[in-house]
Amino acid sequence: MALVKTPLRESGIIDGPLEATLLSSQDLCRDEHGALASFVGCVRNEHFGKNVTHLHYECYKPMAESVLQSLIEETCEKFDPELQARVFHGIGTMYPAQASVVIHVSSGHRVAAFDACRHIIERIKEDLPVWKQEFYADGTSEWLKGS
Predict the structure, then answer these.
(1) Model confidence pLDDT, tens digit, residues 44-71
(2) HSE on the CB side for 21, CA within 13 Å?
(3) Where would I find the beta strands (DSSP E) of 16-98?
(4) For the domain 9-145, what is the CATH code?
């Protein structure tokens, strides 16, 4: 009897910047997967010419977590039913160079892995109900939609 492996599909909204353990994709390696693609989004210190000192992300966690999981399932249907994925987004206060979003996908082939990773980040930017407030060195701040 052959052992059937269930693809790993994990996501979540995490308080604070993402820990280094979430930035690793090693747990997605499988014998039958020849490709692993990752994206790590970090807080920038500049936005449209303004010096960003920090950000504050907010969301309604249950809704955002549901959206993340739905995006993974949609991506698997579109690119590879055997795709594995880990997707996490941080909320709360974060400073430049801290990781706020991470996407890891593995697939049998590189095209599916790259395309799936790109698809997930673009859909997160469009559909994830996360809002960020940017704080600037001049003392002002601005609320922006998106992650």
Answers:
(1) 999 999 999 999 999 999 999 999 999 9
(2) 1
(3) 35-42, 46-47, 50-59, 84-94
(4) 3.90.1170.40
